[in-house]
Amino acid sequence: MLKTLIAANIQAFLLSGGTASGKRGSRGKRAVKSVAGVAAVFIVSLLFCSLYFGMLFISLASFEEHGYGWVYFAVSAILGLLFLIIGSASISKAMIFEAKDNSMLLSMPIKSFHIVASRVAALLAMNLAYLSSVMLPAAIIWQIRCGFSPASFVSFLLFLIGLLCFGTSLGVIMGYVISMIARRSRHKTAVTTVLSFVFFGAYMAVIIGGQSYIMEALENKELLAGGLKGVLPLYIISSAVSDGSIGVSLMAMAAELGIFALSVLLISRSFNSIVAGSSEVRRKKTSPVEFRSRGIMPALVLKEARHLGSNALYIMNSTMGAFMTILAAGFAVIKRESLQEALSLLSASPEYLCIIIATASTFIIGMNTLSGVILSVEGDRLWILKSSPIKSIDILKSKLYMHEIISLPPAVIFWAVTVILVKPDIATAALSLAAVTLYCVLTANLGLWINLLRPSLDWTNEAAAIKGMNTGLVMLLNMAVSTVLVILGALLPSAVGSIPALLIITAALLLGTALSYLWIKRRGVRRLERI
Fold first, then answer.
1. How much is the pLDDT for 21?
2. Are residues 220 and 147 in the same domain?
3. Which residues contact 41 (CB under 8 A, 6 or more apart)?
4. What stretches in the chain show pLDDT beneath 70?
5. Is 21 a domain residue?
6. Quick check: is 242 in a domain?
7. How far is residue 365's CA from residue 315's CA, in Å, rounded to a whole number?
8. Among 81, 340, 442, 459, whose Cα sits 20 to 30 Å from the Cα of 64?
9. Does residue 1 sit in helix, strand or coil?
10. What does residue 195 show for φ and ψ, rounded to 5 degrees?
11. Which sequence ranges are marked TM in the entry (predicted)?
């Protein structure tokens, strides 16, 4: 039974992209396409992490010449663990404690341990991708700069397995803590969302602050080594990898596997009470209810907003761009004096700076992937919408509007902060606002386009739709558009001037928005009706 449950959970994530035409096709073809898509997203994520952490790893590799090679593996382990834990904490809560089939499985003669273990096994598969995104570039750079001996390579593999299990156990425990806190609160979604964003904020603070500390400490290797040496388990494990001590690595991996098994066992013991407590019924006092009529579109948008607000993982995963954009605007306001001083040192006009900042901000705004999953999260409830006397185009429009409501206000706030900081002329400010607005609309259209091509409606766990491959595809597509915008914003002003450059960028965005909406209005409606 445990093998069957593990296979079902892993398959649910691999086959998270369905077919849009209503023609199912063979599961083999679906599996091949899904695995290929997951591999493509993983490769791009790997390239991103290689670029982001590459210079840091190259600098740390020089520690081997001074006898501090273990520092390299210690720092890479910390970065990998942080990347893994934050990625798995919120989803572990949704996967383990909020799956749609929990009640059904508990009503069957299946042990709670088997249910939890199968969900954690699927989480392990996902976390392997998170961890590999950091550790694989670290291994490649170490091999190029220093080289693995056979013993140190085996120790590194044992080190990787231990990190995967230990990091997953920490993520599961964090998800368990969030579930226990939310269980005792009347506003479960709000509590879970706030805690998830707090964890993410702490992660970003550690990454940004820690990386700057490490770069400063590179000049004083003894200082960095002394600080990390104080964490004795980390020092022992990373030294075993550097020295090729397979025996020590085996003992460390065994200890981490023990922690992992213990965490799964402890959570499985309280699994029944958490699942039962999450759906408890409270007595409410009856009171007169006032029914207010709404138009079709406001009612549909309100439905989407309520659905979004009912799931913390949905909020966290699909609206991260809005959260990051507001944080960036707040940071710019707090540091406005130092930023203005730094910008004044650049030999660039305010209009050029406005274009560069506006186009670069689209990378953050593009992290909103709501429209890429907004159709899939309907699941088997989609037939209710389709059977209602509502036009198919209105259903799709409401989902586009929901994405735009989430994306536009933070984008406009960041634009306003940019204008205040760089003080461009009115025409440049107005055209940059038009470009940012059109980008928000375009990304909403592109996300829904992907979701219509690849709906995933047969899930048993909503996390499969929210964290499925569509999210990665939408983010990659948005990043591609942002990259083109930044290149145009950097090159065109010097060639044709700021205003013509913005006119070209705005016209390109307008064309893309019009074509994508035309596809949704025609072929997208037909695809929705065939689902």
1. 44
2. yes
3. 469, 472, 473, 476
4. 1-56, 66, 86-90, 94, 98-101, 182-193, 195-225, 227, 274-294, 460
5. no
6. yes
7. 15
8. 81
9. coil
10. -65, -40
11. 34-58, 70-96, 116-144, 156-178, 190-214, 234-267, 312-334, 354-379, 400-422, 428-452, 473-492, 498-520
